[in-house]
Design brief:
The protein is α/β, with parallel strands linked by helices. The chain has a single domain, classed as Vaccinia Virus protein VP39 (Rossmann fold), CATH 3.40.50.150. The protein is built from 9 helices and 7 strands. Helix 4 crosses helix 6. The longest helix is centred in the N-terminal third of the chain and has 15 residues. The radius of gyration is 17 Å and the shape is globular. It starts with a helix and ends with a helix.
């Protein structure tokens, strides 16, 4: 069975057994700043000195970041260290000004990476997370079955919005960039939910602003 046939079969099975919600969000990323531009702008503005990137792949982003010290972690390629994020955080002793998470695009791994990053974030630092704003249901299905895959990273943003010790936003550019500060939550999301993994795309769509707290890229400075 070739890849195209597998893709069509997975999609058919999802139509039968998956969530039946096919409305889409009207995001258009064309002409907006890239994740690299956002990261570099923050580094330059805040005069940050050290940077950690989780999930480097082909170094499309990592190689372009200009900062005094940087570490890139990926189990397969790119960056500076060949290991998983779990392995890195288990042995790490370094604190960072800015951490960018772009690894495995699943809720389970992303929330773990967020929690670990908060332990090693300097007082006035920031955590950024890529692929937080899927436009349609196909972009966020796990496992992947569509061209551009955001995964269900958005669920980790919703989860972190409920923390008292972290202040979370989503910058509406380049497929959504989560912004997390290690400080008291200024607008804590209160939800009666025990398992964030069970959230549906319909929940994300119908409660979008409440869940994701999206901000325009030009308003980034206001949240620092």
């Amino acid at each position: 069975m070739n890849q195209k046939t597998k893709f069509l079969l997975k999609r058919l099975l999802y139509y039968i057994y998956g969530e039946k919600f096919f409305k889409r969000l009207d995001y258009n990323w064309r002409g907006l700043p890239s994740r690299t531009e956002i990261i570099q702008k923050i580094i330059d503005k805040k005069k940050y000195q050290n940077y950690l990137e989780i999930g480097c792949d082909n170094d499309e982003n990592f190689s372009k970041i200009n900062i005094a010290s940087k570490i890139g972690v990926d189990p397969e390629k790119g960056g500076t260290l060949r290991m998983t994020s779990d392995e890195f955080f288990k042995s790490n002793k370094t604190f960072f000004d800015i951490i960018f998470l772009d690894g495995l695009h699943t809720y389970s791994q992303t929330i773990k990476d967020i929690d670990n990053s908060l332990k090693f974030l300097n007082e006035h630092g920031v955590i950024l997370i890529h692929d937080c704003l899927p436009k349609k249901i196909w972009n966020q299905i796990v496992p992947r079955m569509y061209g551009h895959w955001n995964g269900d990273v958005w669920k980790a943003i919703v989860h972190s919005r409920t923390y008292e010790h972290a202040d979370t936003y989503t910058c509406a550019t380049d497929h959504g960039i989560g912004i997390i500060f290690k400080r008291k939550n200024k607008d804590r999301l209160v939800l009666s939910i025990n398992n964030f993994k069970e959230l549906k795309f319909a929940d994300y769509f119908n409660n979008h602003k409440k869940f994701m707290k999206p901000i325009h890229h030009e308003d980034l400075e206001k949240v620092f």
